[in-house]
Amino acid sequence: MAGVGEIFLGAFVQVLLQKLASDKILNFFRRDRIHTQVMNWEKTLREIRAVLDDAEEKQITNNLVNLWLEELQDLAYDLDDLLDEFSTEALRHKLIENSQSSTNKVRALIPTCCACFNPGGDIFYFKMRSKIKDINTRLQDKSKQISTLGLQMVNISRMPIQDQERQPTTTSATNESHIHGREKSKREIINLLLREESDHNKIGIIPITGMGGIGKTTLAQVVYNDEVVKKHFDLKAWICVSDNFDIMRITKEIAGYVLGDSSGSKTLDQVQDQLKNALAGKKFLIVLDDVWDVKYNEWNILKSPFRDGAPGCKVIVTTRDREVASMMGTVQYHALECLPHEECWSIFAQHAFQNISMKTNPNLESIGHEIVKKCGGLPLAARTLGGLLKSKPREIEWKNVLNTKIWELKGSDILPALRLSYHYLPPHLKQCFAYCAIL
């Protein structure tokens, strides 16, 4: 199962349980004498939900569990469709009942045999009978396979992750008072920002590259908020680009910083003309964070309003793609490498030991060092896991994180540390996360 698919599944099962417990569904089923059936569905889904955490972890090394999850996801979609059909039919019945009071006199003139005839309802129940039987069979099959696959209910104390970075949105705000292992990079980027270009008509484009989670955004945030940098530029703007290089949106957001609004619904030409006039003669710094893909022509269109700025204007671009960095940059891209273990440990410990004393829990330090080794030098992974463990003082909880099979996950763009942070969320936050992911 794809990584994102499994994120939806646990939340989706919870949604199904809520639908089955709704008064509209229950009242409709009671009237049509299939209330017991719904109760059985609810009971089976609760049994399945109880082992989903174990299944999501075991699927990494067990293809049969992976297949079970894939089939369960298909079943969940079909059950959701069926419940929607029942909800629609329940609404139809309600509308008919509401209209009866105004048609009683007319109905009294209709022969009883005709009044009782309801071809729409008969056809509906005939169609539903086979669908209900299919759902019954598949749910029972999935329930029986729980013991065969050795799936167990996992009782793990869960907590919300307060320090996890949420993608794709980023802002210029940062809580980092010290950027671990990146002081040299910070100085180099600031020097480039303060340097005057030999060609006064040229805008300096400074790309920062590196793999996901390596700290590109954090470095850009720290530089953006540096006091010397603040005083050096007249105007600053921070734009999270993400995977959609939408020229109109990006231009409007920059205009929002400069003009105080997003220029309403004007055309791109009008917005760019306003932005060009506002930037004229000003020394500005613009950060384009998390750029995934951009064509050369799109980049030229976006930066056309920048050309009338004062000498020394700069743009910082953060991207994983070195080809994008080379195409956009006017200087050699600044490539970030993985942090050494001690720097990663400092980040992890800063978050993990906020509420836990290493003196009273000496074994946690050694376990923590082993966890940090698995972070692969990625500061985001270290910070995320530190946030996950900061309210978990028990040694067994730390060992569970260290020994989980999620570290063995292959073929996914999702960092194991980020997957772990999702894995330990409570069900209602998993549901919220899944909902946000499809917006």
Explain how this protein is built.
This protein has 439 residues and is of the alpha/beta class. It folds into three domains: 3-100 and 113-148; 183-335, P-loop containing nucleotide triphosphate hydrolases (Rossmann fold), CATH 3.40.50.300; 341-423, Helicase, Ruva Protein, domain 3 (Orthogonal Bundle). Helix content is 59%, strand content 7%. The chain has 20 helices and five strands. The protein has helices at 3-20, 23-31, 35-58, 63-100, 104-108, 112-115, 119-148, 183-194, 216-224, 227-232, 247-259, 268-279, 296-303, 322-328, 341-352, 362-373, 379-389, 395-403, 416-423, 427-437; strands spanning 204-209, 235-242, 284-291, 314-319, 334-335. The chain has a five-stranded parallel β-sheet, sandwiched between helices. Helix 1 (3-20) runs parallel beside helix 4 (63-100). The model is unreliable at 1-5, 109-120 and 156-168 (pLDDT under 50). Residues 12-101 form the Disease resistance N-terminal domain. InterPro entries: Apaf_helical (IPR042197), NB-ARC (IPR002182), P-loop_NTPase (IPR027417), Rx_N (IPR041118). Residues 183-355 form the NB-ARC domain.
Order of helices and strands: HHHHHHHHEHHEHHEHEHEHHHHHH
Strand content: 5-15%
Q: Determine the N-to-C terminus distance.
A: 21 Å
Q: Determine the CATH superfamily of the largest domain.
A: P-loop containing nucleotide triphosphate hydrolases
Named at the architecture level, the CATH assignment of the largest domain is 3-Layer(aba) Sandwich
CATH topology category name of the largest domain:
Rossmann fold
User: What structural category characterises the helix and strand content?
Assistant: alpha/beta
- Principal-axes shape call: flat
Main β-sheet description:
5 strands, parallel
How many H/I helical runs?
20
User: How many structurally independent domains?
Assistant: 3
**CATH C-level category of the largest domain:** Alpha Beta
Unreliable spans are 1-5, 109-120, 156-168
Number of strands: 5
Which strand order does the major sheet show? Answer: 2-3-4-1-5
Rg on CA atoms, Å: 29 Å
Q: Quick check: average pLDDT?
A: 80
Residue share in helix: 55-70%
